[in-house]
Write a structure and sequence with these properties.
Layout lengths: L1 E3 L13 E3 L6 H11 L10 E4 L2 E4 L5 E6 L2 E6 L5 E3 L7 H9 L11 E5 L7 E5 L4 H15 L9 H10 L8 H25 L4 E9 L5 E10 L5 E10 L6 H14 L6 E6 L3 H14 L11 E3 L1 H13 L3 H14 L3 H13 L16 H13 L1 H10 L9 H24 L7 H18 L5 H30 L5 H58 L10 H9 L5 H11 L11 H7 L5 H8 L1
């Protein structure tokens, strides 16, 4: 399509576009033709169009030439008024007539767009529309980013035809150009994120994991988590980078440290959450040597184990006990999903047995226990169907027996609690730390109950799962307990409720005191940070006042006195603040609760504890 649009001074209030279809083979020349013609004007008074290679005013869509009494006249198609029609007359008088033609009532809306009214009356109105090629290209790049379309989409004939039908003015760019646009967007977003991180005064929690592509290349993804001043939870991927082999401890720690230095957040890291493997443990030790001076509690709370990965390891340990039954059910599902004809037979047998389940058979991924749980949970509902099809299909030789189905049913009942908690942990738009502690306590109590099972396999499975559970429980329960303490619906009461059930009355008091001491130590550390921030502000105000009065002394003679008073204070304000907070009644567990909004509004009352939660 070739579009020509030029405008004279007398036509500033009207908007017209005339498009002339061109041959599909002329795409390479469309831009040149438009460049040669744009700017030409019919006597400088109006828009022009191309018809059969000649220039022609747009006014001839509304007028026609006729012979009247032997004279050349131009007649309006609406009111039929004759106007001058000589070639030397031009079209200025035609434009003037179109503005006041009594019969031409309709408005030309070919360059207008219907938009909602600014008033809240539900009406719509016509507004002028101006096509912006650069804006359209940017939105096109965003579309590719959001939906992960291949860059080759710009070369697809169907996409080009659709774009041309939707907006003929949009010029589809090449693959190299759209790649450049995407990288430009990345640079812009990176700059914005770096500005946010630089302004953030608190700590930043990091999570990292390795991912292997189909080409067997390793990539490291690093995500930061923090709460901004407006108390909105932020989670942003700051790096997705290729890590060359071998993936040794030194290579992984160097790649992670390079990212922290690149984003200038090496002094703001609070915790690092990684999967549970020996390589990550050694990597953490190397990072502690480089970051220990800036970490909380000297780095004792820096290493966090991934709770979802812990659950996966515990469940996999338990699934090994019924490996044979799972294998038979997996083979059965795979057999009846192998071909469309077998799927039809399975659905027909389901209807004959009046089984109303709407869930279809799903084949699991052996490395993901939650998919195995879904496979077993669905297959159990069709137990009778598998038995019926065995009588009709001689080649089906992997039918599970009654004991296999019993073990699968028992395992599904046990795994439901793990599956539910994993779904909760997967949330990214709300804080989940307060969910970890009660969930893990419930799992521990459930495992203790499974040890009493009359089924030997389940009982043995429970002991193995408990052994795996204990490996991580002592490492993570302290930090999770602090998060519970800062949750105004639980505080220390939830810990006092669970610990006697887990440790017994004899040892529970020791563990409760250990958690309480950890909370007090962290509160004291944050109290120093809050006092330091207040002192910095006060010194800035003092220096400003001194400059106003002509004093330019760089050293405050009483600065050492302030430090002496701070170090010899008989009582700590944080003790009373923490004590007052814990002694207050718990908030009722009714309805939805936004913990971020609660701490935002209660920061004046508990400034140190607010700082602990946010930073």
């Amino acid at each position: 399509m070739i579009t020509i649009s030029t405008r004279g001074e007398s036509e500033q209030s009207e908007h017209h576009v005339e498009t002339i279809p061109s041959s599909p083979m002329d795409d390479d020349h469309g831009e040149t033709a438009e460049a040669n013609i744009t700017g030409d004007c019919d006597n400088g008074e109006g828009e022009i169009a191309i018809v059969s290679g000649k220039k022609r005013s747009i006014m001839w869509n509304h007028f026609e030439k006729k012979k009247i009494k032997g004279e050349d006249k131009t007649v309006c198609k609406y009111c039929h008024k004759p106007l001058g029609g000589k070639n030397t007359n031009g079209t200025k008088h035609l434009h003037a007539h179109m503005k006041r033609c009594p019969r031409r009532k309709q408005q030309d809306i070919r360059q207008s767009i219907i938009t909602p009214s600014k008033k809240s009356d539900g009406r719509s109105q016509l507004n002028t529309y101006s096509f912006d090629q650069s804006f359209a290209r940017k939105e096109f790049a965003y579309m590719i980013i959001i939906h992960e379309y291949p860059l080759s989409i710009v070369e697809h004939a169907g996409f080009r035809r659709y774009s041309n039908a939707l907006q003929p003015l949009f010029k589809v760019v090449s693959r190299i150009t759209i790649k450049r646009d995407i990288l430009k967007i990345y640079d812009e977003e990176k700059t914005k994120t770096m500005e946010v991180l630089q302004k953030h005064q608190g700590k930043i929690a990091l999570t990292t994991d390795m991912w292997t592509s189909k080409q067997k290349k390793g990539y490291m993804v690093i995500t930061d988590h923090f709460i901004v001043e407006s108390w909105i939870l932020q989670s942003r991927i700051i790096r997705f980078m290729y890590v060359p082999c071998p993936h040794t401890v030194e290579v992984l720690s160097a790649a992670l440290m390079e990212c922290l230095l690149d984003w200038n957040i090496d002094g703001k890291v609070s915790t690092l959450t990684v999967d549970n493997c020996s390589t990550n443990d050694l990597m953490i030790q190397l990072l502690l040597e480089k970051l220990s001076s800036n970490l909380l509690s000297g780095g004792d709370t820096f290493h966090m184990c991934c709770c979802a990965h812990i659950l996966a390891l515990i469940v996999k340990k338990g699934l090994e006990g019924i490996k044979g039954a799972i294998e038979l059910i997996r083979n059965s599902v795979a057999y009846w999903k192998a071909t469309p004809k077998r799927v039809e037979k399975f659905e027909e047998a389901t209807r004959q047995l009046n089984i109303s389940s709407i869930n279809k058979l799903v084949l699991d991924c052996e490395t993901r226990w939650n998919s195995t749980y879904l496979m077993l949970n669905t297959a159990i509902k069709y137990r009778k169907v598998f038995a019926r099809l065995k009588q009709r299909e001689p080649q089906y030789d992997c039918l599970p027996d009654d004991e296999d189905w019993l073990l699968a049913k028992e395992m599904c009942d046990k795994l439901k609690i793990f599956y539910t908690f994993t779904e909760k942990f997967s949330g990214v738009k709300y804080p989940t730390t307060n969910l970890f502690f009660p969930s893990f306590c419930d799992i521990k109590l459930s495992l203790n109950e499974w040890k009493k099972s009359k089924v030997g396999v389940i009982k043995e499975m429970a002991y193995e799962m408990i052994e795996k559970f204990e490996e991580y429980w002592f490492v993570i329960n302290g930090v999770m307990a602090v998060a519970i303490m800062l949750y105004p619906r639980f505080k220390m009461k939830l810990i006092e409720f669970y610990f006697p059930q887990i440790y017994g009355k004899a040892f529970s008091k020791i563990e409760i005191d250990r958690v309480r001491d950890l909370c007090v130590d962290l509160a004291k550390e944050y109290e120093l940070k809050v006092k330091f921030a207040e002192t910095s502000v006060s010194q800035n105000d003092l220096s400003f006042t001194s400059e106003m009065h002509g004093f330019n002394d760089d050293v405050d003679p009483l600065e050492k006195f302030d430090m002496f008073v701070s170090n010899t204070a008989p009582t700590s304000t944080v003790k009373s603040e923490l004590t007052n907070y814990l002694e207050e009644d718990l908030l009722p567990r009714i309805g939805n609760f936004d913990i971020l909004a609660w701490w935002k509004t209660n920061g004046i009352k508990y400034p140190v504890l607010q700082c602990m939660y946010q930073r």
